Amino acid sequence: MDLQRVVDAYVIGIGESQDNTELLNKLVTHISAGDTSLLELVQALGDHLASDEATRRSRGTHILSDVLGELPAAAVPARATTMLTQFFCARLGDATCVPQTLRALMALLRLPAFTSQYAIDVVSALFKEVHVQSFQQSTRSTAYSLLQTVVDGYPKAVQSIGDDFVLGFAQALDGEKDPRSLMVAFELVPRIIELVDIEKYAEDLFDNRDGDPSAISPEALKRALRACIAGSPYFGELAVKPLVSKTTATSVSAKIDAYETLAAGARVYEPSVFLPRMEALVDQIREEVFMAADEDVVRAALGTLEAVYAVISVPPASAKPCAMEEDATPLDYILKEASIQLTADEIKNPEEVGRILRAAAKSSSYNCAIVTDAILPVIAERLSSTEVLTVRRQLIDVLNHVLPPVPLDKEYSVLHMVRLKGITLLVLLPGLLTDNEAAVALTPNVNKEATHLLVQLSLARHELVSKVVLPKLIEALTADTVAASKVARLLDVLGAVAVASRSLVATIVTSICEVLITGLQPAFRVAAMTTVRKIIDATLAAKSDPELVTHLAASVMQPVAQWMLQLVGQQESVPLPLVVEFAKCEVALFSNLDAAAQEKTGEYWFDTYRSVIVDASNAQAEAKSLLPLWRFLIVAAFLGDLSHAALATENAIQRDACFEIISSVVNKTKDAKVRAQLVQTVLDKAVSADSPADPLVLLHQWIARALVTCNDRLGYDSVRWLFGLIDAKSELSTQAAEGFSVILGDHDWSVTKPTHGVFRLLFKQRFYATVLPEITARFNAATDDVTKAAFLVVLTNVIRHMPKSVLMNGIETVVPLLLSAVRPDPRRAELCLWMLDALQKSEANTVDVRRAALETLALVPEKYDIGVLHSVRHTILKVLTKTRDDHKRLVRLDAVRGYNKWLNFGDV
Amino acid sequence: MNITQKINDAPLVYEVESLERRIQATDLDDSHADPIDRDEVYELIRNINDPEHPLTLEQLHVTNREHVFVADSASHVLVEFTPTIPHCSMATLIGLCIRVRLLRSLPERFKVDIRVRSGTHQSEAQVNKQLNDKERVAAALENTYLLDVVNQCLATAA
Lengths: 908, 158
What we know:
The structure holds two protein chains of two kinds.
Chain A: H1 3-15, H2 21-33, H3 38-49, H4 54-70, H5 78-91, H6 98-109, H7 116-129, H8 137-153, H9 155-161, H10 163-173, H11 179-195, H12 202-205, H13 218-229, H14 236-246, H15 252-266, H16 278-291, H17 295-312, H18 323-326, H19 332-343, H20 350-362, H21 365-385, H22 389-402, H23 413-428, H24 435-442, H25 448-460, H26 462-478, H27 484-500, H28 505-518, H29 525-541, H30 546-569, H31 576-590, H32 595-615, H33 621-624, H34 627-648, H35 652-668, H36 672-688, H37 693-709, H38 714-727, H39 733-738, H40 740-744, H41 763-781, H42 785-800, H43 804-808, H44 811-821, H45 826-837, H46 847-863, H47 866-883, H48 889-904
Chain B: H1 38-45, E1 63-71, E2 76-81, H2 91-103, E3 111-116, H3 124-131, H4 134-142, H5 144-154
Parallel strand pairs in B: 2-3
Antiparallel strand pairs in B: 1-2
Domain MIP18 family-like (chain B): 38-114
GO biological process, one term (chain B): protein maturation
Pfam families (chain B): FeS_assembly_P
């Protein structure tokens, strides 16, 4: 046998992925028979094993490991085992050969001549040289098997390696995700624990990944897989069948998963793949809904139904008016069953029937039309024909469940709403249903559509609503076990009806207040008060008649106030939001009362204040919880008036004092919301005062000062208002610009640190960072000099009050702006340029004239600053360069002197 | 330049002869042209400071009136200078100072050649090549540090 030829053929065979079994058998037979020795094989492979090319080395190792794998143990001499072990241990460092090397080492491990020492060498080399996780699964698996063989066959070696073995194993396994490799690894762990004390490395082996940002949850994995399955329409045919059968699984999460995947797939797959399995799917979904085992499953199932119908039930391409009834639609599976249910003597599970129909109808406007066309006539007919109360109730139940949750943002929702409203109003027509039945039809549905319908109804038949529906709603509010969400919805309904129907405002507000005082659970009081406040706001915004306001103030608000005082008297604290809401109502009503009523109310509240807070020695904490009430009154009645007065007066001292007070109060108000409201009130009063504009500028500056120092964003609105004035070239732009020193400068007492003004950390920095870009932008955008100058004044006022460290940020924007303001005196520069004329050769410019001009020019850099002459320097240098070539030597010498002076001018 | 060890610690300092020209009547006569001559060019460079010592090139006999060759009509100037010692590493810098001085003083039409006087420096050819390579000179003057040193040397000349 020509060994070299066989080896070469083998190498080529590996390169071309051929079946080399024959060559391998040949080699193995010859070596086992002793015709050829292993050494000779290694020699024949020599070129390959020692090659510089990674692929050649890898192929050489491949052959050697193949042969070793097949050779009987007896054919490998002990000396060869030693050599080969050393060779392969070294080869582990060669990444391209690692897969083959590991196989070869596996083969060596089973040889009798393989000792514990070799095992130690192999394991050490493996841990040291091979980064197991960077290889593909088969190699990783071989590495784990190798470790397993060592653990099984050479326990002593493992023990002697000890801690390093555990550490190396943990590192090799770190990040392993493949279950096949994990199985091998997991089997190995108990064996290692038996052999080695793992105390030190327990944490490495048991790495808890709680804090791992890349930790993958089952949900994330599911989502990713779902995205793959629903990634291409070509998967449709293959995916739908197993998914539909998976919906019958017993596991809830598997069911939900299957439904959600189907829903996701529906958006991508061809409708045709769903059609053959629709019956099974609908049956399964119906079963889920009727059995109602788990609400999540039901929701997922209905979601799937909706998604699938959205794609499979589409309008026919050619619109045939009668086609709809004649052709079978995929919706038939649902409609037939529903018709059977609805026409049965007793309607079982009305809610479930309604939900399925709703899901189908929701899928598209076309499907909505089909479902309503098919079902509503049945219901209407049955309602008019039957007298059995239970059936009527069940029919309305079905209707209620078909009605509600069409999201308003879907394009066909208008169509849907109109249709449902029409049908419902038909149901509510006098005579068709009794009043009580109408109330039953409406009350359970305190959702968007029902509210809408109720509002419509309250406009047309408000006496019916006020007589029948409102008491039901109010009653529902006070029910013992009412849920918070339902209370919120009930209050929304009441609010919506009150806002829509003016005649019901007094009734509704009165009822809510009564409920609030008498029987509402404490948890819902704030919500109720908020509703009252919203109703009052809406009513006042619509310019209601004064009588209503007086009525609300006297007969509605006062009882609540007394109730709150009573609560306080009983040592019960009133929650702050409730007080705030009530105060808002009171303030809103107060400002709409006439003068006499205002005075009365004011007296009432000041008396109350005196009796509750001032006179009561050591006022209770509960009483203090009412304090925001007076604060609001003060805001409305006092600060507003103050700003009004300040703008109206012509006395500068009075005006400044008012602004200082306002600014101090605003600055010291802790709650941002209250502060915002304060500012709003003050500015509103000021704007509506119709007074001269210049105090308004000052007011804005003081408010900006109050807010900027406590880092309130609102302050910047005032700053921008001032910028706006400057931009608009208003007469007041100079005043506005100068006033920035009011915002940032020191003051003797108002909003200062000694008078305990609120000064937040780094407020100047924030002001600078916010305002500087705006100043720059507006300065650059300005076209006329007046505006530019005004912005420069602003900038100067701002930077004058900034600490140096702040100025260093953005210095590169500020300096050019300021430089542009420094204008060189054009006369000086022109003077130099005139001098240049005297350098021209002419009869008038004799040598003396030229020398005198040059001497003067040489003096200029000594006398003036570069900033003044910078613009002419270049021109002068150019002319002097020419003069250096004057035909008179003396002139040339002077020119050189002048040139060098101008050249160095400004360089230092 | 921070020179701790001077190349030539104790150079020979020569007496300087006065070269002041008397102003003559023709100097102020505009109809009479004064061509640029050897004295005028020498006047421009004699007061350049040595980079190492607070002495002028003239005092060290680095520049010499006789080693300046001017052809006004041909717009050509050749300046030869003599380093104080044959291995002077400042030779290039001195040459550069002379070149910059003439660049800033002579009319632009002139072509200026600066050379080490033959036989006075051990790497004469190299220095000459460097000094007359326009691009190398331009690159050297881009170096602000070097330009600073040159400006210091020229401060006394202006």
